[in-house]
Amino acid sequence: YDDRDGTIWLDGKLVPWRDAKVHLLTHALHYGSSVFEGERAYNGKIFESRKHSERLLFSGKEMDIPIPYSVDQIEAAKDEALKASGLSDAYVRAVCWRGSGEDMGVASSHNPVRMGIAVWEWGAYYGDAKMKGAKIDIAKWKRPDPATIPCFAKAAGLYMICTMSKHAAEAKGCSDALMMDYRGYVAEATGANVFFVKDGKVHTPTPDCFLNGITRQTVIGMLKSKGVEVVERHIMPEELPGFEQCWLTGTAAEVTPVGQIGPHMFEVGALTRDIALDYEKLVRGQLVDA
Ligand code: PMP
């Protein structure tokens, strides 16, 4: 991703894509002190842009990474980066991290907090799974106890669990992994929230130790406005065989149907297809009745 044309917004100005480099002694590289956002623009406009900027600031606060920009400044910076990309449908990655400076130990309160925004084209996150239903592994690693780390922050350090789980899943021919939480309840996939359908009702895990995704909240709103009952509760993995349909939600994943989790099969049913289509219309401003 580093060797291409274009520009990246770095610490307040646009720089050539290939020059957006950081030093080896960047605190974030050694200790994981980084928070970020993943956003999508449709027809030249970032969907729920402000919510993402607010979550970035929230993540910084939670992880003790003081971001030196306001929501309005982040909004303007993302706009500038998106316009400079010349793209209308794009993925937008904003990232803030502790840079290199006076400290190279665990403590880094004197090091500058830096920010970058890169914009590129990113098609369907799960490839053709979007049509057929993704095949999902069951992860060995668990989402941690909220007493271990601020679990509602979108923080780089937390993603090691996801990367390891996703690598293990891909090695088995799966697109992703479903992670349980520290208590053994179903939590989420490595970069997306999960929903199940049973007897016309939708069930989704209570987000009490993982990201309550912006897409998740959007989809719950869409389901409710369609009159579909949504039950947020703790879900045990033993319940998986009893569900009829399943899908994942996330900014990158959008609404992706799931065909299989471990040995359990799901149909890509009418509700899954409706919600995937409605979400596509909503992000493009074409949904009239939501
Ligand atoms: N969980 C994890 C671990 C994620 O990385 C994401 C993607 N940001 C989500 C859930 C979904 O969040 P959102 O809908 O806000 O993109």
Automatic annotation (TrEMBL):
Record GO biological process: isoleucine biosynthetic process; L-leucine biosynthetic process; L-valine biosynthetic process
Alphabetized InterPro entries for the sequence: Aminotrans_IV (IPR001544), Aminotrans_IV_CS (IPR018300), Aminotransferase-like (IPR036038), B_amino_transI (IPR005785), BCAT-like_C (IPR043132), BCAT-like_N (IPR043131), Class-IV_PLP-Dep_Aminotrnsfr (IPR050571)
Single annotated GO MF: branched-chain-amino-acid transaminase activity
Enzyme class: transferase
Cofactor: pyridoxal 5'-phosphate
Domain of life: Bacteria
EC number assigned by the record: 2.6.1.42
Reactions listed under catalytic activity: L-isoleucine + 2-oxoglutarate = (S)-3-methyl-2-oxopentanoate + L-glutamate; L-leucine + 2-oxoglutarate = 4-methyl-2-oxopentanoate + L-glutamate; L-valine + 2-oxoglutarate = 3-methyl-2-oxobutanoate + L-glutamate
Pathway entry: Amino-acid biosynthesis; L-leucine biosynthesis; L-leucine from 3-methyl-2-oxobutanoate: step 4/4; Amino-acid biosynthesis; L-valine biosynthesis; L-valine from pyruvate: step 4/4; Amino-acid biosynthesis; L-isoleucine biosynthesis; L-isoleucine from 2-oxobutanoate: step 4/4
Annotated keywords: Amino-acid biosynthesis, Aminotransferase, Branched-chain amino acid biosynthesis, Pyridoxal phosphate, Transferase
Record SUPFAM superfamilies: D-aminoacid aminotransferase-like PLP-dependent enzymes (SSF56752)
Any Pfam family hit: Aminotran_4
Chain segments annotated as transmembrane: none
Protein family: Belongs to the class-IV pyridoxal-phosphate-dependent aminotransferase family.
Function statement: Acts on leucine, isoleucine and valine.
Descriptive protein name: Branched-chain-amino-acid aminotransferase
Lineage of source species: Bacteria, Pseudomonadati, Pseudomonadota, Alphaproteobacteria, Rhodobacterales
